[in-house]
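pinging the channel bc i need a second pair of eyes. not urgent but kinda urgent?? the chain im working w is below, pasted from the shared doc
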Amino acid sequence: MMERLSRLGAFLLLAIAVGACGFALRGPADVPFDTLYINVPANSLFGAQLRRQMRASAPDVTIVAAANEAEVRLEVLDIVRDRLETSLNAQGRVQEYELTLHLRFQVTDRLGEPLIPDTLLSASRLLPWDDNVAQAKETEADSLYQAMQSDLAQRILRRLDSPDLRAALLAARQQTPPAGVR
């Protein structure tokens, strides 16, 4: 009984400490637009991942199939994978690789004006290498690249929820006359 009370006390103390430090689970994103176009095909791994994360973090946003239907356009300009040898063993064989994923994107309004200019995001992971299990290591490398893509997709979504985008979109709306008014 006493052990149970001490565990409960420790749990309550931990909960108070976590709450006091400002920790909170990330809630839904409060993005300043209603429709979004993503130029990455929905049937690609990254396109599906980006859409799934967008729907989960901003359920009120509609992802549209045509760029001219969207209030905001997310354009992925380039995705590049790099593999760099970082260490060799005594026999001169690769012992470790650094895997890097570079992603360039921009966000524009419906008129093509930049809201977030051409931006480069990068993620990297270390991959210990063993020639004896090369096929398994290639599978591990693919898993690491997928994890990096997920990380970069989250970083893009945080940029879509940023005050910078909100201010740029507000400024663009003030410069654009409403539909039907010339």
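so Strands lie at 35-38, 62-64, 72-88, 94-109, 114-128. and The mean pLDDT is 87. — does that match what u expected or am i reading it wrong
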